[in-house]
Design goal:
Radius of gyration: 30 Å
Largest sheet: 9 strands, mixed
Low-confidence stretches: 128-134, 479-533, 539-547
Shape: globular
Helix content: 55-70%
Mean pLDDT: 78
Structural class: alpha/beta
Strand order of the largest sheet: 4-3-5-2-6-1-7-8-9
Length: about 650
């Protein structure tokens, strides 16, 4: 949909991305001529980051709400299977490709294989009720399709139903954290129930997704006079999502959602697209949603996707300019003087390598301390919540209950299963509230001194590098750099975990990490706790037969389920707490490794540039003259790239 200037926002974004990629490619050519491995690797990584970046749109919703029909309507073809029976645990990714093709990835790790897209449905669709209890053989279906929406850099991901427990962990851990936009589909025939609210509160909001697109499908199946009321009901229910999740100060942990709500006739939209009937598509409500989605992706997400690499390119150009000036300064000196000064500075370069090891060692100790903090806090909180489980079970409002002593076993098993679900939801909610209100502020506070010490150590390291360069070239040491620029210069992503880096916070990054571990814990608890086994034990001990009165039986069942659930938490507690701590540490270690590699590249660059100059000097004046001309040309190219980058950055900021 064109904007006010008659331009398609996604195509505008794509054009600016191509411009940025071309500028980065020119920087890579400069790096090749300078023979700088550091700059070459940085440019290649930046180029890959820009070229591979896509808009990831995650489509969520409960089984049979119309998700796949909606995606098909967006694509304009019947690409995904859309049946009245579920596709168990298979996530479908739709991306751009000239040829229509489908690739399936087996769950057991065996090689992926391509198949005709017409055969996709039979591989990922359940055939009968008995098979619904089995896990699908495939974890992912990757579909390519030559459609304009995907060509503009959009990747659509259609997930299985969110009310299928077996896929919750895969959806949350593998896809939601990387999504740029979340589309939650609600059926007008069952307008946003408790399970949908619980899923959003437990899995979506904690990952920072506040701008959620809600699509009310099958609105055409509701009576015309009731449609406005249905939409209003959904709007009110969605507006209450997260209202009970509050921090210690009583404020909401997450912003109010629901402003982006669109009634859509998915089937009518698909039929309109297939018939190329623009008026029919417009009546379906799909066009209004598409326009809003495009605007969101290009204005809010697109700016971030381009502004970050553009800023990084500016830092790399600064580095390239410094390298050119160093080489020019060295070419003005005699060979003997260069060799003498270089030999005198080798010991300082070796000491810098030792200093890098000290920085990383200190960082490793800090990470271990953070791991212990997370593990201990997680262990204490789980123990506290385990104590509350019996009371939660007794006070829980359930639909089922034991009505007859003679049906106590079957009705009791159903009651236990319902209580298990209630306890799991309560446990998730309590953990998420504690995580956001107490754990993350605690970890963020502990990261503060780490950030300050790392900033000082890295800045000091780079200052010495500047001094070494100046001592060899005969110039002046460059000015000190700010911590954010320091991290960018070393290529570190550790700053993403620290406050005030690129607008992100430690809490946001750590939230995603800890949330993953909570998902693992809850999934393990659900797999291990079996109400049927509990009832077998209860009947074997004669407890149920001695109760006689149904009220006493109901009370006893609730107490037994609560105590069994608490016992299960205590059993899992050590491993779960340890997993949470290790998860936090592993992520930070990856950032620390990147920092170490960036610091190592600083000293390596000094060595390779000086040694390259010495080789040129030894080759004679003709070669040096040629290199001087090359440096002048490279400097002009760097200035030209920066001039064009500046103009592009202004357009990105205005987009």
């Amino acid at each position: 949909m064109p904007d006010a200037l008659g331009q398609d926002p996604l195509k505008t974004f794509k054009g600016m991305r191509l411009e940025l990629a071309a500028l980065i490619g020119r920087l890579r050519s400069v790096a090749d001529e300078l023979e700088s491995a550091e700059l070459r690797n940085a440019a290649a990584a930046l180029e890959q980051r820009v070229n591979e970046d896509v808009f990831r749109v995650m489509v969520l919703g409960e089984f049979n709400c119309g998700k796949s029909t909606l995606v098909n309507a967006l694509l304009g073809e019947r690409v995904l299977p859309a049946f009245a029976r579920p596709c168990t645990a298979v996530i479908c990714e739709v991306g751009y490709g000239q040829e229509r093709r489908a690739v399936l990835y087996p769950r057991d790790g065996s090689p992926s294989f391509e198949l005709p897209i017409e055969e996709l449905a039979e591989h990922i669709t359940i055939d009968d009720e008995e098979a619904e209890t089995l896990q699908n053989r495939y974890k992912l279906a990757e579909i390519t399709w030559p459609l304009p929406l995907c060509a503009d850099g959009v990747q659509l991901t259609d997930s299985p139903g969110t009310n299928e427990d077996s896929i919750r962990e895969a959806v949350t851990n593998g896809y939601l954290a990387r999504a740029d936009a979340v589309v939650y589909v609600v059926s007008a025939l069952a307008p946003f129930g408790k399970s949908e609210r619980t899923y959003l509160e437990n899995h979506v909001l904690p990952l920072g997704h506040s701008d959620i697109f809600f699509l009310v499908t099958r609105i055409d199946q509701a009576p015309a006079e009731e449609r406005a009321d249905v939409i209003e009901v959904v709007r009110k229910r969605v507006g209450r999502v997260g209202e009970e999740l509050q921090g210690r100060d009583g404020t909401r942990l997450y912003p109010v959602v629901g402003s982006l709500l669109f009634p859509v006739d998915g089937k009518g939209a698909l039929e309109g697209r297939l018939a190329q009937d623009a008026e029919m598509v417009q009546r379906s409500g799909l066009a209004e949603f598409e326009e809003s989605l495009r605007g969101f992706l290009t204005s809010k997400k697109g700016r971030v996707k381009l502004a970050g690499p553009s800023s990084d390119l500016r830092t790399r150009l600064w580095k390239a300019r410094a390298l050119v000036h160093d080489r020019e300064a060295l070419y003005d000196q005699d060979l003997a003087g260069i060799v003498t000064r270089y030999d005198a500075q080798k010991i300082r370069l070796d000491l810098l390598d030792d200093k890098r090891a000290v920085i990383l060692g200190k960082l490793e100790n800090d990470i271990r301390s953070l791991e212990r903090t997370a593990e201990d806090a997680f262990r204490r909180r789980l123990a506290e919540l385990a104590e509350k489980c019996p009371a939660w079970a007794e006070e829980a409002e359930t639909q089922g209950r034991i009505e007859s002593v003679f049906k106590a076993k079957s009705q009791g098993e159903a009651l236990a299963a319902e209580l298990t679900t209630i306890l799991t939801d309560r446990l998730r909610a309590e953990l998420l509230r504690w995580q956001s209100g107490e754990l993350l502020p605690m970890l963020t506070g502990q990261l503060g001194p780490v950030e300050q010490e790392l900033a000082a150590a890295v800045a000091d390291f780079l200052e010495v590098v500047q001094q070494v360069r100046a001592a060899i070239t005969g110039g002046e040491a460059g000015p000190a750099v700010e911590f954010a620029e320091t991290l960018a210069e070393t290529g570190s992503a550790f700053g993403d975990a620290l406050p005030s880096q690129a607008g992100r916070t430690a809490a946001m990054s750590l939230s995603a990490i800890v949330l993953t571990q909570l998902g693992v814990l809850v999934a393990a608890a659900l797999l291990s706790f079996t109400p049927l086994g509990l009832f077998t034990a209860m009947f074997g001990a004669g407890a149920m037969q001695r109760a006689f009165h149904v009220d006493r039986i109901n009370s006893q069942v609730r107490r037994q389920v609560g105590e069994a659930y608490a016992a299960q938490i205590r059993e899992l507690l050590p491993d779960a707490a340890r997993t949470a701590g290790v998860g936090v540490g592993d992520r930070l270690r990856a950032w620390a490794r990147t920092t170490g590699e960036g610091l190592a590249a600083q000293t390596a660059t000094v060595r390779e540039q000086v040694e390259a100059t010495i080789e040129d000097k030894k080759a004679g004046e003709a070669r040096v003259a040629g290199q001087r001309e090359r440096m002048r040309r490279l400097l002009a190219e760097v200035d030209a790239i920066e001039f064009e980058r500046g103009g592009l950055a202004e357009r990105i900021n205005r987009s």
